[in-house]
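look at this:
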Amino acid sequence: MISKWLLNPFRYISGWAALALGFTGLVAMALISSYTKVHLDGVVDVHFGHQGGFWVFFRENLIVWASLVLVYGVTGLIMRGATFRFLDLSAYTAMMQLPFIIAVLLPVFTDPSVVVDYIMHTYLGRGDPVVVTTGDIAGFILMMLIIIVMVFWSLLWGFFAFKTLFNTGGLKAAALYVMVIILAETLSLLGIHILLGVSPIGL
C-alpha cells in the first residue's frame, strides 16, 4: 500500500484533503528553505546557497504552483472542456512538488556551498578561491544524484495527475504532458523573473 501510494498517490487522495496536503508541503518547503537556502525556482529547478527569507521561498513555490495550475487548466479545457474538477487540479499540481521536500533538506546533511563556490570561482571567475576536498565533491555528487531522482519522482507524479485529471493515457498523453511541463517551466521562470526580479537562468 505504501509503495503504491508513493508511486501514484492520486488513487487514494483527492479534493480538499489533497489540497491541504499539497499546500502544507509548499509552506513546509519554504520554511525549511529559509534555513537551508535551497530555491525551488522552477518546475524542475533546484538552486543552492542563495540568500532569502521565508516569503521569498514561499513566493517562488506559489509561482511554480500557479504556473502548473494555469498550464494544466488550459490544457484540460482544450482536452476535456469543463469535465475535470478545478479543486483536484489545484490539489494535484501542489502535491506533485512534494518530492522536492527531500531536496530542500539535503544541505542539513551535506553542505553544497563549498563546491558551488569553487565552481563559480574556477569556471565563472566569481567570488574568492575555495579549497574543496574529496569528501566535499563526493557529497555534492551524491546530492545531485538524489535531486535527479526527486525531479523524476515529481514528474512521475505530475504525469499520473495529468492522466487522472483528464482521464487520458498512452503515447499521445505522454507527448502532451511533456509539452505541458515545458510550458509550465517557461512560465514559472518568467513569473519569478518578473515578480521577484530574478534572472530566468537561476538565482
Notes: The chain has a mean pLDDT of 88. The beta strands are 38-39, 47-48. The CA atoms of residues 194 and 200 lie 9 Å apart. The chain has one domain: 2-196.
